[in-house]
Request: fold
Amino acid sequence: MSAIIKVEHLTRVFDVSKPWLNRVIERLPRALLTAVSDVSFEIEENSVYALVGESGSGKSTIGKIMVGLVAPSEGSVQVEDVDLATETDATKVEAVRANIQMIFQDPFASLNPRWRVRDVIAEPVAAKGGDTTGLAEKLLEQVGLSAADAGKYPHEFSGGQRQRICIARALASEPKIIVCDEPTSALDVSVQAQVLNLMSDLREELGLTYLFISHDLTVVQHMADRIGVLYLGRLVEEAPRDVLFDDPKHPYTQMLFAAAPKMDGFGREIDPPKGEIPDAINPPTGCAFHPRCPLAIERCSVERPEMRNLGATRVACHLAE
Amino acid sequence: MTDTPVLSVRNLVVEIPTRHGLLRPVDDVSYDIEAGEILGVVGESGAGKSMTGNAVIGLLDPPARITSGEILLSGQPIHNLERSALRRLRGKKMGMIFQDPLTSLNPLLTIGDQLSETILEHLDISQTQARKRAIAALEEVGIPAASARINSYPHEFSGGMRQRVVIALALCAEPDLIIADEPTTALDVSVQAQIMALLKRLCRDRGVAVMLVTHDMGVIAEAADRVAVMYAGRLAELGAVREVLTNARHPYTAGLMASTPLASQGRKRLRQIPGAMPRLGALPTGCAFHPRCDHAQDQCRQEPGPTLDRCDGRAACWFPIGADTKEEAQA
Amino acid sequence: MADTTPITAPSPAPPSRLRRAWESDLAWSFRHAPVAMASFFVVTLLILGAVLAPLIAPHDPFDPATLNLMNGFTPPGQANAFTGELFLLGTDDQGRDVFSTILYGMRISLFVGFSAVLLAMVLGVTLGLLAGYVGGWTETIIMRIADVQLTFPAILVAMLIFGIAKGITPPEYRNEMAIWVLILAIGLSDWVQFARVVRGATLVEKNKEYIQAARLIGRTPFSIMLRHILPNVLNPVLVIATISLALAIIAEATLSFLGVGAPPTKPSLGTLIRIGQEFMFSGEWWILLFPAATLLALALSINLLGDWLRDALNPRLR
Reply:
């Protein structure tokens, strides 16, 4: 298998400063938020790569950079060896665009309420002037809805059904890669199972590659082949699923696993993690996790750890072994 | 501790008249919560779990109203109280913790003002004493440097710290009952663990009864003593949390458990409950769950779902899981 | 795939379009709002009267050949002392039938009102969409112009535009152009509201995920604004358009009353009121009262209709 997506030293900085005049009057410096900081990883074809992290970890930003909704500040994302941000050949960009689609978190905001389902689903093809006869009906059946639903409006569907419609739309341009940004976190558990099963089925049937973005460890463990753990815009650990869950190396990963509620954790008493996620505008020096880390030594507050290989795991920690 | 439960809900029915007819978001729900006990209320969106909590604390938005049944707080009926009497009871006897801490705090008042205002309203003490109590309350919920931060405004706190303040606010008048409606849903995993640990500790130390409304089975498993599973406005199953989660008797609970991805399952297909929860305006006849139920029989399609008594007070089902073997054994 | 059974039950034959419209929330709320129904009735009646004026009106007030100066100042409902002719609402100084002039005057008032609102709407919605979606300097420039214009009363802006426009039109066309200049003046003074509301709604819609999905597909910004955002910001536009219509009719009447609007040869309601007020104190009250009452009824019922529409379309109040 080969890497279909290569992410190299990806950095994205957002300018969240107040307007120029306010800054001058209030004597404020520019506020720069580093949402993604020097992240590198590869996704293999026909696999599920999951990015996990809490809020502010930059996982959604990476997804948006990957599909071209947000431009990288530094570094690159190469989809099938094409860099969307710098590629000048329009036909290549078009081809890659059609090859990578996205499913969003909120099924109630991701469908235009004024459009019929047929038009919503066929839009990726219609926008390119393609033939859309029967396309929506075919896709609706593929995602477990009925062809007769094509004439309805989104508000006539439940959350789970809407997410199926979103999946159908993502499949319309016959992509190879789908970026799934928290696809089930707005859904109820029983409906989540339906959507996850559908996504697994489609992956096998169509040979899809998923970038799966989620904060839910159980869902990630269920879906992913390989997992990257993000903290404050930095990739702190990356490993195949079983390796990561059996033997998490990074103290943050360990903390995250310990803190997640367990379905069989009856009456479990844990020592809850210390502190909260720091402000991404002024991240801690050195390793971003050091103020909360139980193992931190002086070096951690000075030197940002490099990614290093530790068996099948890549980990960014001075102390992990 | 007396034998009277802190909260006792008896055959509660909440109805909303709409132009499409009468909706029943809460239908014949009964349960008790003892002092020092955490009752988890789980269910999917639209199951009526939040509406039950709002009915208890008297925060139903009109036109929703309680049409029958009773709510007893330490044995005293509170379902028929005037709004003003309920307001006095809220805070003093009952505290509420909402999902979004930002909307439950007044952005224009300092934390200290909001705390002492609540304390003064319910306890007959002086301003300075109230302030001392407020600082103590903040310290108790784990806010560092409480005496310095008491003059801060809500927006100066992080999400987790805000939820701590809300908990302090709910607890400062020393109520007997706390209703926590999705208290950690808006928070990150690591902060959620902190908040749940805090809630558990306070409940145990003070003997407060807690009604914990959430959709997260993991949170229920770790925090609750007993759990009530709701479906389409009715109680589907009620029992000790370990029993219900590992040995479900209602097919809905069983389906819910099976559809949750578990570490032990690996990459197997998830078992799924087909379809989705019906809308309140379009409930199926018979047991509301029967169109999604594997075990449904003619009785389920025709007769409305039974009460919990049918199955030792555990599950509201005509054919609870594990019942066949039991009956055979008896025969 | 194990999961191919349709989740949705086969739906029954869809009801007809008319039936659906009748059962929609908007129609339901309309049927339960007596004020809205009464307003709707009045507006419909007045508009019908205006549109069908050539068929209904007993006289053509614009045709001097049919006028008889002897009919001047006939009181309503009484026969003229000289000619014996009867006029429902009386006649003015030149013997024109007041009822007919009102019908014809309304035509002009409504035409100016509708056209001005249309102009303001097209201009305001376009600029609002641009400001909201494109942002940056485009937004700053558009919205600052809007802010500056808002600091002057709309009628003043209209008079200013009217004055400039009149100054640059050759005198021989002035009477013909007067109506168009009026429309331009009122329309340009009224676009700000549309722009502000559309910009606000666009900012909300822009961040929804369906817009991101459309961008992802490779839709151009123009196409996204037109096909995705525009249909979703039209509700508030409809409300403002209704209320603006009432305001535009009043603005037109005000301008005409002040003598800078419709010429006396083609009188609008405002012109009629101006003519009428000259005779108010000499006892010929009907020349003023009837046009004024018509204007009031028209503006008030359109406004009430707009109020109801705003409440009915506001999801928060449901």
Q: What stands out?
A: The CA atoms of residues 276 and 289 of chain C lie 8 Å apart.
